[in-house]
Amino acid sequence: QVQLMESGGGLVQAGGSLRLSCAASGGTLSSYSMGWFRQASGKWREFVASINYSGSRTYYANSVKGRFTISRDNAKNTVWLQMNNLKPEDTAVYYCAAQEMGIIEAGEDDYDYWGQGAQVTVSS
Prior knowledge:
By secondary structure, the chain is mostly beta strands. It is 0% helix and 49% strand. The protein has no helices and 11 strands. The strands form 2 sheets. Strands 2, 4, 5, 6, 9, 10 and 11 form a 7-stranded mixed sheet that branches. Strand 7 and strand 8 (78-83) form a beta hairpin.
């Protein structure tokens, strides 16, 4: 069973950048499609971005397209979410998740393993 650990969250001003990392242990990351989700206070968790097994295909929510980039290095068992031009509405707890099925358009119910989350706060 794979364990996921996010890092790299923090406080940043609007227009700034952050890079989140998701490190996997207890399993081989190349066996999973990976996704990032976020949950703002008082709101449902929502999809942000996903990437297939090899990293050749990515998928983004419209709200982050052109600003966020998901990437992975299977040799390092790590997935990243580069977030640029951050906005106050990006403030949320960000979760990485692993999916065995390999469908990058899948919803959160199809993800099998989840990290504990990393707080990202964007000040105006």
